[in-house]
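Continuing the batch. This is chain 6 of the set; chains 1 through 5 are on the previous pages. Same settings as before, nothing changed between runs. Recording input and output for traceability.
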Amino acid sequence: MHIFIDENLGQGLARALHHLQTLLPENHTVEHVIDKFGRRGIPDEEWLSELQREGNWVILSKDKFDKNDPEIHAFREAGLTVFHLDKQWSKHRGWEEAMRLLKWWPDISKLVNSATQPMWYEVPWAHTPKLKGRPLGK
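Output for chain 6:
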């Protein structure tokens, strides 16, 4: 499975996660939007369409969605599993953010393989023993 990291998380973090993923039994690749598409500023709808066409992608995002934001609907309608870092993540940057994501990473990596249908996971800042998600209807 391929894990796609959007622009709200750093390119270096995505590359580090890609490397560290090799230490886990799941065989995932991790790719940042800039590495995949070669530039910044690609509208979410554009890269969502491409990932949907290719298949075998999961999204990790820190976008700040409003309840009725058209962007959140595009994410939910894309038919891809999404791990959305909740609003508490926006209060943290750099090493603090990277260390917390690393704490979550084994859970995220396992869930990527276990989903039988597209899921939406809200990833809280506080690490809990089990991450809960809800199915996305297409």
